[in-house]
TrEMBL record:
Keyword list, A-Z: Leucine-rich repeat, Membrane, Repeat, Signal, Transmembrane, Transmembrane helix
The Leucine-rich repeat-containing N-terminal plant-type domain, residue ranges: 34-71
Topology in the lipid bilayer: Single-pass membrane protein
Primary site of residence: other
Location of this chain's protein in the cell: Cell envelope; Membrane
Source organism phylogeny: Eukaryota, Viridiplantae, Streptophyta, Embryophyta, Tracheophyta
Protein name (record): Leucine-rich repeat-containing N-terminal plant-type domain-containing protein
Species this protein is from: Hordeum vulgare subsp. vulgare (Domesticated barley)
Length: 332
C-alpha cells in the first residue's frame, strides 16, 4: 500500500518549492555555513558510485546542488533535500541534524544503513521519506520532537523493536508507513492521538497482541493496513464504524472472527478489503454486495461457510478471491 496520501503530500510540498530553485547568495551567514558544512559531511560519508553528487562542490552554489532546495523565506537555508533512487550508501553523519530549517527529506530507494539519523533538532520537518534503505536499530523517541511532521515513510528497512508509544504526539501526522521492517511488540493505542491520520500502514512486521479499539477514533482514516503480523483476536467494532475507510488490509493474522453483517452500511466507501488467511468464519455478509465502490476483495484461505452472495452491483470489482474456504452452493 504505497500511499496515495504520501504522494499527494509530496506533490503539495513540491508545489510550494519554497520559491528557491535558483537562489544565489553573495554572502554566507553563520547559519548558512552550518548548512554547507552539514551537506559536505554528508557527501564525504556517502558512497556515490554513479556521481549523483558531482555538483556538490565549491564551484556551484549549494542551493543549486543536485537535490538541494533552499528557502525563499530564509534565504540560503536548506529547506528540502531530495535524492531518491540515486544508488547512494553509507551511514548518515550526526551533523545532518543541524539542517534545522529542513522541511522535506527524501532519501528513499538508496542503500543507506546504520541507525536512523538524528532528527530531534529538525522542528520544521514536514515530510520524511527514508523508505527502501537498510536502516537498523529502533525508531528513536527523538523523532517525536519533529512536531510538524505530516508524512513519515520508514518502510522497507530493517528497523526493530517496538513502535514508540509517543508516536501519537505527532498531532499533525497524516500518513505513517512503517511496513516491511522487523518491528515487534504491540500496536500502541496512543497512535489514536494523531487524530489527523489518513493512512496507517503497519504491514509485514512482527507485531503481536490485538488490534487496539482506539484506532476507531481516527475518523479521518482512509487506508488502514496491519496485514502479515502476529495479531490475534477480532478487528474491533469501532474500526468498522470508520465511515471514510476505503482500504482495510489485515491479511495473514489470527483474527478469528466473523465479518459484521452490516459491513457495507458502516463502511460505504470501502474500495479494498483484504482479509485472506485471517481465520475468518461464519457467512460472507450479503451486504458486501452493496459496497458499490469495491474494487478488490480477498477473503481466501479462511473458514467461511454457506453460499456466495450476489455481487451483481459491484460494477467496479476487478479482483475477487474466495478460494480455500468451506463455501457451498452455486456460483451466483
Amino acid at each position: 500500500m504505497r500511499t496515495l496520501s504520501m504522494v499527494i503530500l509530496l506533490a503539495f510540498l513540491l508545489l510550494l518549492s519554497y520559491g528557491a530553485a535558483n537562489i544565489h547568495c553573495s554572502t554566507v551567514s553563520h547559519e548558512n555555513r552550518t548548512d554547507v558544512h552539514s551537506l559536505l559531511e554528508f557527501k564525504a560519508a556517502t558512497n556515490d558510485p554513479t556521481g549523483a553528487l558531482r555538483s556538490w562542490n565549491r564551484r556551484v552554489h549549494y542551493c543549486n546542488w543536485e537535490g538541494v532546495i533552499c528557502s525563499s523565506m530564509k534565504p540560503g537555508r536548506v529547506a528540502a533535500l531530495q535524492l531518491p533512487g540515486q544508488n547512494l550508501s553509507g551511514e548518515i553523519t550526526p551533523s545532518f541534524g543541524n539542517l534545522t530549517y529542513l522541511k522535506l527529506l527524501n532519501l528513499s530507494s538508496n542503500g543507506f544503513s546504520g541507525l536512523l539519523p538524528p532528527l530531534n533538532l529538525l522542528h520544521e520537518l514536514v515530510l520524511l521519506d527514508l523508505s527502501s534503505n537498510s536502516f537498523q536499530g529502533t525508531i528513536p523517541d527523538s523523532l517525536m520532537n519533529c512536531s510538524n511532521l505530516e508524512g513519515v515513510d520508514l518502510s522497507r528497512n530493517m528497523l526493530e523493536g517496538p513502535i514508540p508509544e509517543e508516536i501519537g504526539s505527532l498531532y499533525n501526522l497524516i500518513a505513517l508507513n512503517i511496513s516491511r521492517n522487523n518491528l515487534s511488540g504491540i500496536i500502541p493505542p496512543t497512535i489514536s492521538n494523531a487524530t489527523q491520520l489518513q493512512l496507517l500502514n503497519l504491514q509485514e512486521n512482527q507485531l503481536g497482541g490485538s488490534v487496539p479499539g482506539e484506532l476507531g477514533k481516527l475518523s479521518n482514516m482512509f487506508s488502514l493496513g496491519f496485514g502479515d503480523n502476529w495479531l490475534s483476536g477480532p478487528v474491533p467494532p469501532s474500526i468498522f464504524n470508520l465511515t471514510g475507510l476505503g482500504v482495510l488490509d489485515g491479511h495473514l493474522n489470527m483474527l478469528r472472527m466473523a465479518l459484521p453483517l452490516n459491513i457495507c452500511e458502516t463502511l460505504p466507501n470501502l474500495r479494498i478489503l483484504i482479509l485472506g488467511g485471517t481465520m475468518l468464519d461464519g457467512h460472507i455478509p450479503a451486504s458486501l454486495g452493496n459496497c458499490t465502490m469495491l474494487q478488490v476483495m480477498d477473503l481466501s484461505n479462511n473458514s467461511l461457510i454457506g453460499e456466495i452472495p450476489s455481487f451483481g452491483k459491484l460494477l467496479s470489482l476487478a479482483r475477487l478471491y474466495l478460494e480455500s474456504n468451506n463455501l457451498q452452493g452455486v456460483i451466483p
